[in-house]
Prior knowledge:
Layout: E1 6-10, H1 13-17, E2 36-43, E3 51-60, E4 74-78, E5 88-89, E6 100-101, E7 103-107, H2 131-141, E8 149-156, E9 159-168, H3 172-179, E10 186-190, E11 194-197, H4 201-211, H5 217-223, H6 242-254, E12 266-270, E13 279-281, H7 313-320, H8 324-338, H9 346-359, H10 363-371, H11 382-410, E14 423-425, E15 429-430, E16 435-440, E17 445-448, E18 466-467, E19 472-474, E20 478-486, E21 489-490, E22 494-499, E23 510-516, E24 527-532, E25 539-540, E26 545-548, E27 552-553, E28 559-560, E29 565-569, H12 572-579, E30 585-588, E31 597-603, E32 609-616, E33 632-634, E34 649-651
Parallel strand pairs: 1-8, 15-22, 29-30
Antiparallel strand pairs: 1-2, 2-3, 3-4, 4-7, 5-6, 7-9, 8-9, 10-11, 10-12, 12-13, 14-16, 16-19, 17-18, 17-20, 20-21, 20-22, 23-24, 23-33, 24-29, 25-28, 26-27, 26-31, 31-32, 33-34
Helix pairs in contact: 2-9, 9-11
Amino acid sequence: ILSLPALCLTTSVSNLFDAATGLYPNSASQGTQWERPASAELVFPDGSRGFQVDAGLRIHGGLSRQHWHALKHSFRLGFSREYGPSRLEFPLFDDSRVTSFNELTLRASSTDGWAVENAEPWTRPKATYLRDPWMKDTQQAMGWPCGHSRYVHLFLNGIYWGQYNLAERTEAVWLSENEGGEPEDYDIIKDVGELEGGNRVAWDQMVSLARNGLASDVAYGRIEGRRPDGSRDPDLPVYLDVDSLIDYMILHIYSGAIDWPNHNWWSARRRGASSRGFRFYTWDQEISNISLTATTTYTGEAFEAVSGPQDSPAFLYAKLRANARFRQRFAARATALTSGFGILTPAQNAARWERRQTEIDHSIVAESARWGDSRQASPLRRSHWLAEMNWMRNTYWPQLHSIAVGRLRRVGLYGLPEDSAILITPRGGVVSSGTLVALTGGPEIIWTADGRYPVGPTGEPGPWAQPYFSPIPIVGPTEIRARRRLADGWSPLVGARFLTPADVASESALEVSEVHYHPVSGDQEQFVEIHNRAASRYALVGGARISGGIDCVLSNACVLPPDGRAVLLRNPLGFEARYGGGRPVIGQFLGALGHGGDRIHLIASSGRMLEQFQYGDEGGWPILADGGGASLTRRRSLQPRDPADSSQWRPSGVAGGTPGWDDGAPFFGVADADADADGW
């Protein structure tokens, strides 16, 4: 019970259990008339500050409302002045800068839990309670907004009701908090083409364009508001964010989402000049990542060839597949995500899963006590859950990858254009020592192993390049670059980086090393620097996140060299005007760092919290970093490392800081103590 926060919902007994008016006996009933006043209190076992708020409580979900299907029901909390404050103001999720909520859901896990009926492909012993959060976590790691969540123990009027996933509900207020604008700026279409908010005008126009065909570059450009040459046409509306659709489809195809796309999808578009088109958000994917043998969705279509219904992302995907430029764009992204150090490689997938698994490793015992025997005489226990966890770790994630890539290959949506010249197999990543890398595509291939270009400035092979004769063994950090001589010159350059497990630093090697939160010349120069403290190993940081008062996901497959640094910034133009080009910039954050203090969280690509601290005007934080011309710079020598300790920070020795490298400013005090409290 003490392994998770407790969310305590309190209301009259009749509001919950009265046969005629109670929420639970009438769980299938929907509408605002089935909302009841309740107090919600979040209590942390370690004594951290929680909250108490009065809110509206109702049952949440579709099929899961039915007792015959699931005995454990989901709930929704709505915040309005009818019950209390209009929003919940609380930093609920460490991996999000959003602290204001209009609605929250308490997800019971339904078809991924123990209180549900058995119906293939799900059966109760296969319940993980993790599948929907993993899908949303992965879409976030791919760089897109998606609902955040955490696990809690739920108590109804003091009665233990089980382990729940407390999650954001992706509605209009959520969109405005995460994507900008006002709630009324958004058109929201979901599930079975249902209008959730705004209007259908842009959606119907987009579907009409798709229905008429998107094979031509004119039609393809039109749906993005672009001319046939790819440039933006300000006279055309932007209907679709194609990159959002691509990543959304890759994730659902890769994961074998069965209960989709006939429903369980969610899309929104911001109206006006700032519109980026309809974007797609993962929603209710409890029947994904569940089988290695399933090949089709419930509609009977192959995962990779879904085409309907018409009011769905699959319809747009099917129509866009007729366009050669879209296929190339899709294939390049799919290849990048699933090869090398990409977000959708087996190690990355397993790490995100195991982080969530750790979150409920103890609470699953309480869930077993509450719901393990609700459908069968012999209770399901943690041992059953661990058996499924072992299958996911040892069988599912290792075997899924080739199956998922095969799906994409079958519809011509995998591989890079360079493949016709040279194919590197494998395509990079972390490989066992001694792995052989093959270069195929024809004769006269030349290559390098240290990242240098194989062709020199004269157009001839450099003396550092080698002719390729046989597979290349990987025994340490290697960056292969290769080209092939053609009749009219050289093939396009191809490359891949390889590391062995011994070359990879642990997640804990990553730290926040510099923060410029109050630049003299304006907040457009704000930046955060991260540092790989490992002296001889590489840090895999693609999908990692800086959060707290700001939010930024590090780009796919990003790797930091030993003692390497990288910069996340607020405004590229403002940053470059101040610091020039050539800095190791790997991301742009949303939001802004507060001058009077702010939270900064560093989260690994697995989702594990690495560092969290809050700088401020009080507590000994260096004064010169607060508008005095310096940045906030981490001292290198102090152990143990604790970013929340203000004495472990100093002002930079260079005005404006040194984003991308260490300024190396020495300290000449006694025992590295700051006796005069000036930050040095």
